[in-house]
Structures are given as structure tokens and as C-alpha cells.
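QA checklist item 7 of 12: single-chain prediction sanity check.
[x] sequence parsed
[x] length recorded as 191
[x] structure emitted
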Amino acid sequence: MTALKLIAACSSIDAAQQIAEQTHGICMPSTKADTDHLPFAALAIAVTDTLDQVTAAADVGAYLVCERTIKNQSLDELDDSNLPLSVGIFTMVAHPKLGAGPSDAYWRDNHAPLALKVHVAMTHYYQMSVMHRFHGPDWNGFACCCFSSEDDLRNKFFDTPEGKQQIEQDVSRFADTRNSPRRVIASAKRY
């Protein structure tokens, strides 16, 4: 399933929560108390007709994305009882030799099946492919890899050491691993 959404990347968790509250969206705040070293403190995911309001409040960046539901239900179909508990948000910059379109196609068609095979403890998986950047860093996507707990995310991300190596090699085929920001570990809450 695919759907168009707005993503607001914010340096303040409070700002992202406010966007999610105003749009009845989802907020994914970092679980870290200190977020200065992260690419963003929180993401707000919204479907709204108040575009200017959302993009203005997104101080890090604002993006129109296509949400691809790879595992479990669309975020729209989830309620508080089945929202992901721990989310690893991986921000992707396209591989410079491929460019945005081919990198995205590889991510969707080749990487997604491998991720499902290797990340056996993953409960939900969403690819947020950037269709348009309103402002902010030139990012091409957000992978939301969801787990039952932060411990599972940190310690059961890969099925085997060989699986870890496969994923790392595969990511380097479609993403600019040098310029893609570090992972953000977050929770999820619907407003």
C-alpha cells in the first residue's frame, strides 16, 4: 500500500508533537534526552491541507513522501494499540552514481525483500520515499524499521553476522552511506 504524506523534520520534539496534534498525525520523537548530535529530534507525519503551517514549523526540513508499507499495516490503519513501539529511522541520501529515481527503485524492489529476510524481529517496515523537498537537507527517503522494544532494535536488528554484512553491502548499492545522516531511535504516538 502507498500513500502521500507530509514529513516535518524538527529540531524540537515539542514542535513535532504540536504538528502531529494539529494534523491528527503521528509523532516519532527521539528516545534520547540530548538530540543536538542527531539530524532531527523528531518527525511528524501528517496528511493535511494546512501545508504552509506544517512546512513553516518544520525547521529542519519538510518533505512530501510516498509511504510504502512493506510490513504490517499502513500507518493510517494503526491505532494506539498496534503502533510501533520502537522505530529506527534511517535517513537516506541517494547513491551519487545512481541518482534519486534509480536509488529509490532499488530500495523498493531489491532492498525491501532483503530487509524482510534479515530483520526477522522487525514488526513494521515503512519506506518514506521523498517525492518533493519543500526545504531542508537534500534527503531522498526515510526508512522506518520498527521493533517491539528498543532492546530488540539495538540487539536483534540482524538475524546473523552474515545478514548484517548483506544489508550493509546492499545499502551501499543504493544509498550514499557517507552523506546519509545517522540513525535516530524513536517512539511513535498518534494524535
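[x] summary fact logged: The mean pLDDT is 94.
[ ] second reviewer sign-off
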